[in-house]
Specification:
The protein is an alpha+beta fold. It contains nine helices and four strands; from the N terminus they run H-H-H-H-H-E-H-H-E-E-H-E-H. A four-stranded antiparallel sheet has the order 2-3-1-4, with helices on both faces. Strand 2 and strand 3 form a beta hairpin. Helix 6 packs antiparallel against helix 7. The chain starts with a helix and ends with a helix. The relative contact order is 0.07.
Length: 298
């Protein structure tokens, strides 16, 4: 071993100490006169120093959260970190999707972190479901699934600011509910309420608002509907009610209906009052018809 070899090995040992101290090691060029036996080692050691320097810089970038830095190609020593970088990039994209509201993301490539991430997603799903349920219950009737009075009032407030008129309002009242509750029980009464709700929903357009605002009282907002179209909707509901009663004679339903039209937002309250009056007139007429039938000689 000559003097050049000793100097080279001493310098190489210094580079190793530097690397072990987590500091950058400068390239090591052998002196002239390096023995032929040591020359192949020096060439490989030079490539190792380059790879370790790239590994150090790439590791620091990942540790600092820099996922955009691409490592130099052809250094297989970096392959595990490249794989980690790819996973972290995908995880970043998934996190962005979660932030945008997509809670269908699932992680299965980062071990224990995957479990923690997936538990977080599951908790967010539960939280979202609970919030959606609260929002739903805040605007819907629990028995029928129709909108409730709160939602109806909100829609009326919006109509006061709208210009898309005419708008018709329909009042529906389930006849004889108190008698049914008293004689057949509240379960049967609830059944009639739910079936009346179905008839009303199927008798109007999907865009119209059907709300239950009392025990046996419903109201419908018929958008872009004049008085003639509102009366046609009443006819349609009556036809559906009759068809239902033909199918189920044990639990028939009877609805009193009335409608009125507002041509501007100033007439909304008046239209609601006139619809209510029309519904009561319809109820009185139906009761009178029933009495006439009962008084007929048999």
């Amino acid at each position: 071993m000559n003097e050049a070899d000793l100097r080279y090995l001493t310098a190489a040992a210094g580079r190793i100490d530097t690397l072990l101290a987590a500091r950058a090691a400068t390239p090591l060029q052998p002196d002239e006169g390096l023995s032929p036996e040591l020359l192949p080692f020096s060439e490989r050691f030079a490539r190792l120093l380059e790879a370790l320097d790239a590994l150090r810089r790439f590791s620091i970038a990942l540790a600092n959260g820099n996922l955009a830095q691409d490592p130099p190609p052809g250094i297989h020593l970096l392959d595990p970190l490249k794989h980690l970088q790819s996973n972290l990039r995908h995880l970043t994209w998934q996190t962005q999707q979660v932030a945008a509201g997509d809670l269908d993301q699932q992680v299965d490539f980062l071990g224990e972190f995957s479990s923690a991430f997936n538990q977080m997603i599951a908790a967010l799903r539960e939280k979202r479901a609970a919030e959606e349920k609260v929002r739903y219950l805040g605007t819907h009737d629990a028995l029928t699934g129709l909108y409730n009075r709160t939602y109806f009032n909100e829609q009326i407030d919006q109509l006061r600011e709208a210009r898309d008129y005419p708008v018709s309002l329909m009042i529906a009242d389930l006849d004889g509910l108190k008698t049914v509750n008293d004689t057949r029980g509240h379960l049967v009464g609830d059944l009639l309420i739910k079936r009346a709700a179905q008839v009303l929903q199927h008798g109007v357009r999907p865009a119209d608002v059907v709300a239950r605002i009392g025990g046996d009282e419903f109201v419908i907002i018929l958008y872009s509907t004049d008085q003639a179209a509102a009366q046609a909707a009443i006819t349609q509901i009556r036809a559906m009610m009759d068809a239902y009663n033909q199918r189920d004679r044990e639990f028939p339903i009877s609805l009193s209906l009335g409608a009125s039209t507002a041509m501007t937002h100033h007439a909304l309250e008046e239209a609601l009052r006139r619809a209510d009056e029309a519904m009561y007139r319809d109820k009185l007429q139906r009761k009178a018809q029933i009495r006439q039938v009962d008084l007929r000689p048999r």
